[in-house]
Design brief:
- The protein is mostly beta strands.
- The chain folds into four domains: 102 residues, Immunoglobulin-like; 66 residues, Immunoglobulin-like, CATH 2.60.40; 65 residues, Immunoglobulins (Immunoglobulin-like); 127 residues, Immunoglobulin-like (Sandwich), CATH 2.60.40.1120.
- It contains four helices and 31 strands.
- A hairpin with a 6-residue loop joins strand 19 and strand 20.
- It is rod-shaped, with a radius of gyration of 42 Å.
- The N and C termini lie far apart (128 Å).
- The N terminus and C terminus are likely disordered.
Amino acid sequence: MRKSILLYSLLCFAVGSVAAGPALFAAPLGARGSAFKVAQAGGILKVFANVKGAKVFLDDVEIGATPTIRLLPPGTYKVRLELPGYEAYEKEITILPNKAVTINPELVKVVGSIEIAANVEGAEVYLQGRFVGTTPNAVVEDLPQGTYQIQVKKVGYATYSGPITIKPNVRLKLKVELTPNAGLVNVTSVPEGANVFLDGEFVGKTPLKLESVSAGRHALRIELNGYATFYRGFQVAIGDKLDIVGKLVTEGGALKVKTREDGADVYLDGSYLGKTPLVTGKTITPGEYSLRISREHYADHIQPAVIERNRTTKVSAELISLDLAMQTGPTGGRQASSSVTEKWWFWTTVGGVVAAAAGGTTYIVLSQGTSGPTGDIAVTLP
């Protein structure tokens, strides 16, 4: 027993000497005796907890984190432990000379949880920028009390973003309504495994689900080795769901296009084929298409084109010069009898220009709701 007391006294002396060391050796020689007595007369505070890293405050002054040991002068102190996600712990203690006081509280979790659902499955959920799961039931547990930023996103839909406040011991349920910001287009082919190009860009192989097709007109092309190319132009609106099936055939047709001025761009159902004079191989799937021939400073030439199996469809287009028309008018300087033809800017800039393959007659398609006559106006070129 006497040996145990002696060892304990030596321990207190050693700890006190280390704690008071700087003051002891920095003090004048006459003051070292009193500093040594204070160190000897101090007590020990030991602070533990069921979790590491809790901040320890002594009379509202942070002195470390659990676990920690401190040598203190005798007296009464207020000890407080804090850790995010846990209830704060507070206790008043009394330090006695050459005595040890141990605090080892069980900190209680203060957390909540959140469950996120959405009107579409497979939407990704992010909390404070960190991916936490996908809908329909993304769940995040053990969230400390506080406000968080949440995002729910899926291709083809506008991203939801907003704050969410977590409360202690409460599971919040959040239902998010995602709104489409694009159209959905399902592309299949017979046979499958064909390459799909949207507006000239490769996007995958059939069967293919395009979930974020922007609103507007688009050009689709389906290609498979040994088969004729399938072309399809389509219009999509926000929220639309379209199904496009490309029935591929081994024997296609060809297209031959020429213009008076070479170098015009040729488009088949919106897909670019090349410049005039243009001759394709028999690589186009038979069917009815929209053919557009475009050249800078000329009105677009638009006409239907029927592609037949093992045959060549020939198109000869007379493009109208917009620069020349602005100077001379549609009759080459002659007096026009129609009030509509007196306004060249009106009927050359409204609607599409459709030219017959022969006969040199161009049809200007007018839009409805304008002044003057409606329908097609035939203009004989000089």
